[in-house]
């Protein structure tokens, strides 16, 4: 038993060390060659300098956002898979990402973004909550996870169609570009303001999700057994969905929809968690942070002149990997 | 509340309807500590529905369930789970946990966390594993088990709850004869201090181990009494539509199904004895 605890601590420690290393790398590397130490000493001395500004106003918010958004997506993915008892589920399945994207697209299409920088992220969060409440109205009464999945599929198609309608009505090239920018996901040109939006929402969402880890473990044996073990399905599910909406909505608000993180990360880390859904949550948050930070590093250095969208890179990495998993995976319980 | 009131499970006038279909019709009985009750009846008789209603998972359309004289919906879920545990008919694990972790899930009402259960309640989990004769499988993952082995692991999960009342839905259906006897003996031992209600299809084992038999058909409680009172050739013919031979010997009752009956063979006039021994 003691070795097991040690082994698990090692896994968390290992992931955290790699994460800190990646953070340091993403602060150091960039289009301009600046010394992090010089920036630190400038900041310490209170001097305003180019290196300080590049490291702390450009690279740091971007790296922090990658960590926050990635952690939120990773943990939300693990929570969705546990909730739906399905390894192929991810935040997109319940329409939470689509709802957030619709919120963003609507503000872009009607030009509400001119009202202030807060409008867009707020609309994305409202969109994810609208998706959540719609799901709850459709499936909240039912104790069945199947109804929940079907409701998610229906809402996803609806929001997807509405996004397409909004895209169709976009009247200028600029609007279309902005829409593509948000739907593909990107961390370019983010500031500390964005960090201040994403940090509280994602952290609150993740805290809500993590507080339900025991229910996710109990759900391993199905709805009936989980209920018989003293969990009230309605309350547990409502808290999990609210947590997912917050974590995903906060992420989509500042980075657009970044796909595949919530799908791939829990899949890869499940053996590390001995396949226990509760234990998988924190590991997936760490793994999601790593994946998005790594993917963003790749985005920044593949082609500096014309940056690829982050969501494109995660899809390029994630989709072939996922297909590979589907082909080689022993179709056992996973 | 468990300390002051004696253990009891009581239901009256239970109805459960889904749409136009009535799955439970006017079911009522009382049970207390010291009983091992076999719940029998043909497929679709309402056994699982009754167990889920008694476990508080499904709210009855009409009627009420009292656990320790307190209405079931009034129980906080976690307190209820510590007193009353259910082994569902379908408990297919979604993830390939280790056997030990799956059994540890039974401790969730007490620990609130799987990690805490695994770290602190190893002895209790070991006891449950040994009781269900699956200790040697403890470190295997559940997806590598056979159907019968998995069922025994799920039984161990039920045992690990240490609840006063165990409701088990077909606990022994997939087991080999040795383990059928083994699990039935365990349930009987549990019933010396607690209450066990098990849905069963093996009538001979039900007759041999249970103190009391509830016979259900088409959502109704047809008979309630000792195995000898309930398991009559007449009852079996009407409810199960089989011609069965019921033999009483020193070893107990044995029931052999001999032939299916057609509609014309069925006894029509006599109605079942409702030997209600709930007040015993």
UniProtKB/TrEMBL annotation, chain A:
What membrane topology was assigned to this protein in its record? Multi-pass membrane protein
What is the species listed in this Swiss-Prot or TrEMBL entry? Simiduia aestuariiviva
What parts of the sequence cross the membrane? 12-40, 60-80, 92-112, 118-138, 145-167, 196-215, 238-268, 280-302, 308-327
Q: What is its main location?
A: membrane
InterPro entries named among the record's database cross-references? ABC_BtuC-like (IPR037294), ABC_transptr_permease_BtuC (IPR000522)
Q: Which UniProt keywords apply?
A: Cell membrane, Membrane, Transmembrane, Transmembrane helix, Transport
Extract the SUPFAM superfamilies matched here: ABC transporter involved in vitamin B12 uptake, BtuC
Name of the protein this chain belongs to: Iron complex transport system permease protein
Q: What subcellular compartments does it reside in?
A: Cell membrane
Q: What does UniProt give as GO cellular component?
A: plasma membrane
Q: From the Swiss-Prot or TrEMBL record, what is one GO molecular function term? A: transmembrane transporter activity
Q: Give the UniProt family note.
A: Belongs to the binding-protein-dependent transport system permease family. FecCD subfamily.
UniProtKB/TrEMBL annotation, chain B:
Superkingdom of this protein's organism = Bacteria
Q: Does the keyword Transport apply?
A: yes
Print the keywords alphabetically: ATP-binding, Nucleotide-binding, Translocase, Transport
Q: Keyword Transport on this protein?
A: yes
Residues forming the ABC transporter domain are 9-243
Classification via Pfam families: ABC_tran
SMART domains for the chain: AAA
Gene Ontology MF term list:
ATP binding; ATP hydrolysis activity
Report the protein's function. Part of the ABC transporter complex HmuTUV involved in hemin import. Responsible for energy coupling to the transport system.
Q: What is this protein called?
A: Iron complex transport system ATP-binding protein
Question: Lineage of this protein's species?
Answer: Bacteria, Pseudomonadati, Pseudomonadota, Gammaproteobacteria, Cellvibrionales
């Amino acid at each position: 038993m003691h070795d097991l605890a040690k082994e698990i601590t090692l896994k968390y420690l290992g992931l955290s060390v790699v994460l800190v290393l990646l953070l340091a790398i993403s602060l150091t590397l960039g289009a301009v060659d600046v010394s992090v130490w010089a920036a630190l000493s400038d900041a310490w001395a209170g001097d305003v300098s180019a290196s300080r500004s590049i490291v702390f106003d450009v690279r740091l918010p971007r790296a922090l956002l990658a960590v926050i958004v990635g952690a939120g997506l990773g943990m939300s993915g693990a929570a969705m898979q546990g909730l739906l008892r399905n390894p192929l589920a991810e935040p997109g399945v319940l329409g939470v990402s689509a709802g957030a994207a619709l919120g963003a697209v609507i503000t872009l299409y009607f030009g509400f973004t001119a009202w202030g920088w807060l409008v867009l992220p707020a609309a994305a969060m409202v969109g994810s909550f609208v998706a959540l409440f719609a799901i709850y109205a459709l499936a909240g009464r039912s104790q069945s996870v199947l109804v929940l999945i079907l409701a998610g599929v229906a809402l996803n198609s609806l929001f997807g169609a509405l996004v397409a309608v909004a895209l169709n009505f976009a009247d200028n090239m600029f609007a279309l570009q902005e829409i593509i920018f948000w739907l593909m996901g990107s961390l370019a040109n983010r500031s500390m303001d964005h960090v201040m939006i994403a940090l509280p929402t994602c952290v609150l969402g993740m805290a809500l999700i993590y507080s339900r880890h025991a229910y996710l473990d109990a759900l391993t044996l199905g709805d009936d057994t989980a209920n018989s073990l003293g969990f009230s399905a309605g309350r547990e599910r409502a808290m999990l969905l609210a947590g997912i909406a917050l974590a995903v909505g906060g992420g989509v608000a500042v980075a657009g929809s970044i796909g595949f993180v919530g799908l791939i990360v829990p899949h890869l880390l499940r053996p590390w968690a001995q396949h226990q859904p509760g234990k998988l949550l924190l590991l997936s948050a760490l793994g999601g942070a790593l994946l998005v930070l790594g993917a963003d590093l790749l985005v920044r250095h593949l082609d500096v002149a014309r940056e690829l969208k982050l969501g494109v890179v995660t899809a390029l990495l994630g989709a072939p990997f996922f297909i590979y998993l589907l082909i080689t995976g022993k179709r056992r319980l996973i | 509340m468990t300390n002051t009131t004696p253990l009891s499970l009581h239901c009256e006038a239970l109805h459960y309807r889904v749409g136009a279909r009535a799955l439970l019709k006017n079911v009522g009985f009382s049970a207390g500590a010291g009983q091992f009750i076999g719940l029998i009846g043909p497929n679709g008789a309402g056994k699982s529905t009754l167990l889920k209603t008694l476990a508080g998972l499904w709210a009855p359309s009409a009627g009420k369930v009292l656990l320790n004289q307190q209405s079931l919906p009034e129980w906080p879920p976690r307190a209820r789970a510590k007193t009353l545990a259910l082994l569902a008919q379908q408990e297919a694990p979604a993830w390939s946990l280790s056997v030990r972790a799956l059994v540890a899930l039974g401790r969730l009402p007490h620990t609130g966390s799987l990690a805490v259960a695994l770290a602190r309640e190893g002895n209790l989990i070991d006891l449950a594993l040994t009781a269900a004769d699956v200790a040697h499988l403890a470190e295997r993952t559940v997806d590598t088990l056979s159907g019968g082995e998995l069922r025994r692991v799920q039984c161990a999960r039920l045992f690990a709850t240490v609840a006063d009342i165990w409701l088990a839905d077909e606990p022994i259906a997939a087991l080999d004869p040795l383990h059928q006897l083994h699990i039935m003996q365990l349930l009987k031992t549990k019933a010396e201090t607690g209450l066990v209600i098990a849905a069963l299809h093996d009538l001979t084992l039900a007759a041999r181990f249970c103190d009391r038999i509830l016979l259900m058909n088409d959502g109704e409680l047809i008979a309630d009494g000792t195995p000898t009172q309930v398991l009559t050739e007449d009852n079996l013919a009407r409810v199960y539509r089989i011609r069965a031979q019921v033999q009483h010997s020193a070893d107990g009752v044995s029931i052999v199904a001999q032939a299916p009956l057609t509609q014309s063979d069925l006894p029509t006039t006599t109605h079942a004895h409702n030997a209600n021994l709930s007040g015993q």
